[in-house]
């Protein structure tokens, strides 16, 4: 559900590539969310009094692996962070160019004009990100935590929009808004009940709001057509798609 990941899915040259990209991306994310905390737990055992916990992984590499191997792994991690960073800049600048500039500032803008605006905002947002990273490095951790919890509140609208024909635009909008508000409240204002992560409460509230609001509002007739077309697309193979 991250925008920069969604953009990568659209770059697939065929339906087969798109389907397998989804499979491998799920495996990749699962490995990250399993092995990353595991490394942290192990590092806490090996270096219980480390002054900078953020450096636990490089410290483990330097202490227990050959220097060449450690350098390669750290370089790979740096390359991965750069890849993620430029993808996110691309996604945000594209959204600014398409959803803000094209819709609200210059409705007559052609693709080249949108491209130039996206390039400009890539530079501007990149500079802002560098300034924040240098001035407030601890803020990046908070932003990352909020982004992961915030994405959870988007899940009902994203999944329901693909599979539930009774979903409505109002249900999706209010589930996202209220879900994010609950996530922020349980992060900064009140202690999260039952010691659950704030993102879990945002997800649950968003789901309830999504279903409740969709039940009392009228779905657009085209919603059913879109869902049918999506299902037809994903449950067909490349040969069927090419002949239609």
Task: Describe the SSE topology.
Elements: H1 3-10, H2 15-46, H3 56-64, H4 67-105, H5 111-135, H6 137-152, H7 155-163, H8 169-189, H9 198-216, H10 221-234, H11 238-243
Helix pairs in contact: 1-4, 4-5, 5-6, 6-9, 7-8, 8-9
Number of strands: 0
Give the percentage of residues in beta strands.
under 5%
> How many helical elements?
11
Give the overall pLDDT as a whole number.
83
Q: What characteristic shape results from the CA principal axes? A: globular
Helix content: over 70%
Helices and strands, in order, run as: HHHHHHHHHHH
Q: Structural class, from helix and strand content?
A: mainly alpha
Radius of gyration: 22 Å
Largest sheet: none
Give the end-to-end Cα distance, rounded to a whole number of Å.
Answer: 29 Å
Low-confidence stretches: none
Descriptive overview:
The protein is mainly alpha-helical and 244 residues long. The protein has a domain at 138-244. It has eleven helices and no strands. It is globular and about 60 Å long. The two termini are 29 Å apart.
In short:
Helix content is 81%, strand content 0%. By secondary structure, it is mostly helical. Helix 1 (3-10) packs across helix 4 (67-105) and helix 7 runs antiparallel to helix 8.
């Amino acid at each position: 559900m991250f925008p920069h990941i969604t953009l990568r899915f659209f770059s697939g040259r065929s339906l087969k590539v798109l389907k397998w990209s989804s499979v491998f991306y799920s495996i990749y994310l699962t490995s990250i969310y399993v092995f990353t905390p595991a490394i942290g737990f192990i590092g806490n055992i090996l270096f219980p009094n480390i002054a900078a916990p953020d450096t636990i992984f490089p410290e483990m590499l330097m202490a227990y692996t050959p220097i060449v191997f450690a350098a390669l792994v750290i370089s790979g991690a740096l390359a991965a962070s750069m890849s993620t960073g430029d993808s996110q800049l691309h996604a945000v600048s594209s959204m600014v160019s398409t959803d803000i500039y094209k819709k609200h500032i210059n409705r007559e803008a052609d693709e080249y004009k949108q491209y130039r605006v996206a390039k400009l905002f890539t530079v501007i947002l990149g500079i802002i990100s560098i300034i924040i990273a240098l001035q407030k490095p601890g803020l990046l951790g908070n932003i990352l935590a909020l982004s992961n919890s915030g994405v959870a509140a988007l899940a009902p609208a994203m999944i329901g929009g693909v599979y539930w024909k009774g979903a409505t635009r109002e249900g999706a909008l209010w589930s996202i808004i209220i879900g994010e508000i609950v996530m922020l409240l349980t992060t900064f204002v009140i202690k999260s009940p039952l010691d659950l992560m704030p993102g879990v409460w945002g997800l649950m509230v968003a789901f309830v709001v999504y279903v409740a609001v969709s039940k009392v509002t009228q779905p657009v007739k085209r919603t059913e057509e879109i869902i049918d077309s999506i299902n037809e697309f994903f449950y067909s193979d490349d040969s069927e798609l090419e002949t239609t």
